[in-house]
Amino acid sequence: MADRESEIIAKVASGVSGLNARAWDRLAGGDPFLCHAFLSSLEDSGSVGPGTGWTPAPILVEDDASHLIAAAPAYLKTHSQGEYVFDHGWAEAWERAGGKYYPKLQVSVPFTPVPGPRLLGTRSQQLLAAIEVVTVQNGMSSAHITFVDDGGASDCDRRGWLIRHGVQYHWFNRGYASFDDFLASLTSRKRKALRKERAAARQGLDFSALRGSEITPADWDAVWAFYQDTGSRKWGRPYLTREFFDLVGERMGDRVLLLLAYRDGLPIAGALNFIGPDTLYGRYWGAIDEVPFLHFELCYYQAIEWAIEHGLGSVQAGAQGEHKVARGYEPVITRSAHFIPNPSFRNAVAEFLEAERAGVAAEAEWLQRDLPYRSSSSE
């Protein structure tokens, strides 16, 4: 498919794994979830691909010398699972009206509700044009770009895509020298509550923080057991395969941080994190023993502590969870963009999103007033 005006070529590939890693990573920058190693691990492990409802279909833009100059991680989806931006109601409405909602085109990082670039490179308008053409030419109901950064959302908005808002909770490093320094920024009541939670969670347990080659096959076995427990309770079955964790461990090295809790020398809980240029991303958590507040300790407090010690500017601990606000995580607006070719369907969704955005804004404003910091109105 050629864009004559810009003299570029846009095409759909069969996956990221078969693409040149250096060329892809040059566009992806330092985002750990957009790098070739992460996306190819999803494909090579069978976490996406045949039988999963996620068919890799990255959209590429090349110049006339066949050099990759822009790309989008895209998938043909036959369901709406593993996205964290919920459109099941849209699918039901469209199919009640006689349409076929699936397959749809999804530009995203599978199973990863982390905001970041989705239109990689400098040709965002050409990428969006290609996405639109692929959607229309194949008779698909819609295309979706989830957890897109502000710049990408603005590019989509300029082309008339519908913009959807959500709320996440991120922790920001205000120049803290230590975890105690962070605690000192909280109100007295919240500071005491966090200390009590940490003491209760740590009683009788040992902890470790492992990176790269420090993580052994036995550690990955433990992570898999934790992940299966969480996945079976949340989604019915885990999205990721066991092999995915081995591949990520091999390919991403020191960009992986594993926080483990032990009882009598045996791991009972863990939190898997990925390290970005200035952010620690908490992704997968699980436990095989119930310990009060251990989830908060491993996923929130130790993540904050590690980020401070290593000079990172923020921690993102995953989707949802208003309880994070009381623990120093602040509400942040996330964005997704949606291309719907059918005018009637588009208008109905646009009306819904207008009301939803107002509700999200009100929620974020209310949560902001409930922050535990001494300078907030909660003191």
Q: Topology, pairings included?
A:
Blueprint: E1 2-3, E2 8-12, H1 21-28, H2 36-44, E3 54-56, E4 59-62, E5 68-72, E6 74-77, H3 88-96, E7 104-107, E8 120-121, H4 124-137, E9 143-145, H5 150-158, E10 162-172, H6 179-184, H7 188-202, E11 206-211, H8 217-234, H9 242-252, E12 256-263, E13 266-275, E14 279-287, H10 294-309, E15 314-319, E16 330-339, H11 343-368
Parallel strand pairs: 7-9, 14-15
Antiparallel strand pairs: 1-2, 2-4, 3-6, 4-5, 5-8, 6-7, 9-16, 10-15, 10-16, 11-12, 12-13, 13-14
Helix pairs in contact: 2-9, 7-10, 8-9
How would you describe this structure to a colleague?
It is a single chain. The chain has 379 residues and is an alpha+beta fold. It folds into two domains: 2-166 and 332-368, Gcn5-related N-acetyltransferase (GNAT) (Aminopeptidase); 174-312, Aminopeptidase (3-Layer(aba) Sandwich). The protein is 37% helix and 24% strand. The chain has helices at 21-28, 36-44, 88-96, 124-137, 150-158, 179-184, 188-202, 217-234, 242-252, 294-309, 343-368, and strands at 2-3, 8-12, 54-56, 59-62, 68-72, 74-77, 104-107, 120-121, 143-145, 162-172, 206-211, 256-263, 266-275, 279-287, 314-319, 330-339. It has an eleven-stranded mixed sheet with strand order 3-6-7-9-16-10-15-14-13-12-11, with helices on both faces. Helix 2 runs antiparallel to helix 9 and helix 7 packs across helix 10. The radius of gyration is 21 Å and the shape is globular. The N and C termini lie far apart (59 Å). Residues 1-6 have low confidence and may be disordered.
